[in-house]
Structures are given as C-alpha cells and as structure tokens.
Amino acid sequence: MTKVKETMKAVGLYKYLPIDHQESLIDVELEKPVPTGKDLLVKVQAISVNPVDYKVRSPKDRVESVPKVLGWDVAGVVEQVGPDVTLFKPGDEVYYAGSITRPGGNSEFHLVDERIVGKKPSTLDFAQAAALPLTTITAWESLYDRLGVSKNQADNTGKTILIIGAAGGVGSIATQLSKYSGLTVIGTASRPESADWVKGLGADHVINHFEAFLPQLKAVGIEQVDYILCLNSTEKHWANMAEAIAPQGKICSIVETDELLNLTLLKNKSVTFVWELMFTRSTYQTPDMIEQHKLLDEVARLVDEGVIRTTTSETLTPINAANLRKAHALLETGRTVGKVVLEGF
Fold first, then answer.
1. How far apart are CA 337 and CA 339, in angstroms?
2. Per the structure, how many domains does the chain have?
3. Are 289 and 258 contained in the same domain?
4. Full-model pTM
5. Strands 93-96 and 160-164
6. Which of 220, 243, 275 is the last residue of a domain?
7. For 182-237, what is each residue's pLDDT tens digit?
C-alpha cells in the first residue's frame, strides 16, 4: 500500500514581481519535509520579515519551476529531529534565522540545521521571539566578531559607537547590545517617532542621518567615534563615516553597494572596514557554524533577564500570502520601526 505524502501550507513565488502584484507572493501546498542528518523539522508558529526577503523577491526575469519559499526569521516547536541531532529534542521551543541557500521559513513546517538554532526565550511568546533571530545574529556578529567590541563593560569605558539606522530591526538590537557592553551609543534617526524609539532602547544621543555627522557629534560633546555600524546605504554615508571615525577606529557595514567606495579616505587614520553577513557561516558551512546556536542561546538568556527586549512593532495574523505582501510593502517604504511579525497558519 502506497503511503500518502503529507502536505503543508506555505507562501511562495513562481515569478519575481512588484509587491503590489497579486502573484508576487501566493499561497501554495508543498510536501512536508523529513529531517535527515543534523536537521530539525520545526512546526512554524511565527515568522518575521527582513529586507533580505524583498531583495530576494525583487523583480527579475526568472521563473521558478517549483515555488520558491522566502522567510528567514522563525519561532516554532521541534516536531522531529534527524539522526545526527544532539542539541534538541521534539517539543523544544526554538527560534532561528536559517540559511539563505535553503527554502525559507514561510511554511507550516521547516527544516533547519541545529547548529544555527537557539532555544526560544522563555519569557517571550512565539510572535515576540520571531522578531529577533536574523537581526540579533547580525547585530551580535557585527559588534563582537567584526568590530571586535569587548563584552567586558570595563573595557569600553569612554568608547563610542555610531549606529546608522538605529531604529530598524538590526539597529534596535545593536543599540541594546552596545549599551549593555558599556559603550556610549549614538544612534541615527530622521523622524521624531524613530528618534523616540532609539532613545527608548538606550541610545545616549540621537543624530539625523540626512545631515553631516561630525557637526552633530561635536554638538553633543563627541569629537570622533571609535566604532561605526552602518545599517543604511553604505555609499551615501561613506564620506561622513570617514570623517567621523577616530584614528585606528573600525567601521562595519551590512549594506551592499553597487558603487565603488574610496578606501583611501580611511588610509591616513589606519581605519578598519569590514562587512557582515549573517548567512556567511551557514552558506559556507564554516567550522564555527555552531557559534550562531551559542549566541542565540546567550541572547535568550539576556532577554529572560530583562537586558534585551524584543523589537516587534506590528503583528499580522494569519501567515498567508496577503499578509506577507502587506509586510513586504511596509518594509519597502524604508520607514518601518522595529520588526513586522506574522503569526499562525
């Protein structure tokens, strides 16, 4: 007797279309996957959207033969585990961002390598937890792995960080982690509501990213900054960053650019420039992949201790194509504060 294959609901795409097109994201039925190796099969409870979602979905001349599923922020419950899994068991509540090289999490069930998964913060519900993984990994790796910020508060006394785009998803976490690490935090924001959000997360000062940085920094008594984390338009802020960074300072950006950057602007100050992409470890299966599991567990502890708070700003329900199109459209405005989350199939 032939076993009937189980199916699941998902949201995917065949064509890469503008978000106002009804077929840009569609509801589909897919075969329910089976975990092998180090994979967990997770029953998805909530998801969140990030700029990577609409960048992957952006219009292009390509048609998929099977639905492409997006989504790189998940909170859910482990349903089954592969034979090589050692970190989790069925019933565990988890949160993670997943891998850009595999199907995303906008589906009822999702496969993910256990080495990039963390235990969900116990004090958060699934929607609140789903807002965290991608932005948390990006902020953590930017600060501690790329910029080399010490986790010891005493080491950071008198040191400053400028976070460009501090009100967004990554900026909201980076602001909190920077403050927790003992840095003086200057965040950029351009509207009263985003400035209030950044101050509420612990920023010591807020400046406007549409104006020259250095005069604004000097106005609050800061001559230069030790670290810069750029979360918005690398090329647009390049000259401003080169001017504001301290000699031997470090700049990290997460935003790709199509324009050439004049690295010579950094030479006389011996400034370090480094990129951050949180998918690097999973894409290249680096030997230290498990560091994402460890950092997600550490952040869960900080959340449960009240040090870090979730950055959910809007929750839509249920998880379906119509609501995901709405979420993508919101993100594409570039004016969202915090994270947009979807909950429940």
1. 7
2. 2
3. no
4. 0.94
5. unpaired
6. 275
7. 999 999 998 999 999 999 999 999 999 999 999 999 999 999 999 999 999 999 99
